[in-house]
# Entry
Amino acid sequence: MRKAQNWNQPCPDKSCEMYGQMNKGNISGISTYLTKSGSRSIFKCKCCNYSFSETGDTVFFDLKTPEEKVITALKMILVRVSISGISFVLSIKEVTILKWQDRAYRKADKINKILLKDIAVTEVQSDEMWSFVKKK
Ligand SMILES: [Zn+2]
# Structure
């Protein structure tokens, strides 16, 4: 059997002894599936036998906004549309977009994988993709 990995996924079952605890070795990845937004994993908690899918909220915590819209906003940032421009086009508050941008920067690897499916960029660009964000 493969060694337990650290998935950074806590057990989401509130009745589980290990609920909310990350990287205790109780979570194993059992499969992956594809969504419009990229590949997602299915996990299982060994403690309570609960299986659950990885949700976009590990990247996109703002569940009030459809992931598609968040991704569109991030793409617009990447092609250097101004925050006020994005705010106008998508009818999203500037402060919200700034929050997404900040999160995207911190989760750049994961988000890049999602965005790169749709935008043609080279590897070099993807490494540098978010660096301009931080400079601001
Ligand atoms: Zn559990």
Summary: The chain has two domains: 1-54, 58-135. Strands lie at 27-35, 38-45, 51-53. The domain at 1-54 is CATH 2.20.25 (N-terminal domain of TfIIb).
